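Bench log, entry 3. Co-assembly request; chain sequences pasted below exactly as received.
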Amino acid sequence: MRYTFNFSGLAPYWEMFLDGALMTLELTLASTIFGLILGVLCAIGKRSRLPWLRTLCGIYIETVRNTPFLVQIFIFYFGLSSLGYTMPAAVAAVITMVINVGAYSAEIIRAGMDAVPPGQIEAAECLGLSRPRIYWHVVMLPAFEKVYPSITSQFVLMMLMSSVTSQISAEELTGAANNIQSITFLSLETYIVVAGLYLVLAVLLKALFSLGGLVLFRRRRVVGRAARETARATRTATLRRTAAPRQAA
Amino acid sequence: MDHFSSAQFLYLLKGLGWTLVLSALSFVLGSVAGFGVMLARLSRIGPVRVLAAVFIQGIQGIPLLVLLFVVYFGVGIFGIDVPPLAAAGIALMVYVSAFLGEIWRGSVESIEKTQWEAAECLGLSRWQSLLLVIIPQAIRLSLPATVGFLVQVIKSTSLASVVGFVELTRAGQIINNSLFQPFLVFALVGGFYFLLCFPLSKWSQAMERKLNVGRR
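Structure output for the full assembly:
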């Protein structure tokens, strides 16, 4: 059987696609900011000296990481509404996304903080830095810089995961696609277009995060510039060396 | 209104069984395809390498949910009535192959170059050195990440519910529609997933610690 694609049938609905994409970005932005805060707090809690706080954070992280996002969102949206706490789908979506990404980023940040060599902390103590300053300058910031790539890719994954919130009828990109395909009956075309849009969003987000890395971390800029300068210096040095014998001859 | 009874519990257990079937199916098929992706990614032919990289980046940039819809409706246009298990299986296979291909490429490339050179000195062909020398070492390195990804696969099968495949999550939804006790039902569903995933996560973490891959 032959199938003729009809993408032009979707053109009148471009505004719905755009609105959906914007909603996806808004969900992602909100869950990135609050998820990061939650993640940092939980990472600190997981490394705390209080056993009950460690256990609590551990239970939270393991529960979220070992259950599907779809089930989490059902528990949150339908479960809470059965108890009388009703909320708009978008709010439930953001809260569940924050809870979800918070657990993942907590684990990533904790790993980064654990990887700070104890010698550096001892050195900072010897220099007479106060505890909070050690925590901030020696543990927190270098750890964050170290895990920045993995944490940002977690946020890109979160953006893709936000498609699942269409299942509680949040009007983001996939939700928009569900609506459009039920109006036009062009199911395959709709989802191909949406797949392309997600791809564009993912590439855009990745580029944005790597740019953000350059802005955030001065060390990266300096090291990058130094590497470029060294490369140029070696290049000219090699040129001179290869040119020299010829001059002698 | 009905109450949650053993009948509903058994129905959930049946859904759990289908979750296991779908996870196993997509993991096995995805591993085979993922091995192919890894080979393509390591190929000495430039265009093949680029194609594999584009495939991986593409699949990793599309949500599994959308991929499921594309496969479901895409196979549907051929006029065949697709069983949901097949649609979900194919979509998950593609998804798994992209991720496993990339994980395995990483572990193969982290084996020192001297191992390749030593194998070549022994007169092994490129294919032989890969199969006999490199992969046996790379498997050890890749195992934690692979098991970790298996956890992802099990969780991802919950999305197959959207194309009407009655696995654990869908079974929960069906029961909830008649009982309307979402907290109880979905907590139970989540608990089942946890029982499946938690031991695997712990196993993966234990292997990682043992190998100390992170500090290499």
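Chain B has eight helices and no strands. Chain B has one domain: 6-215.
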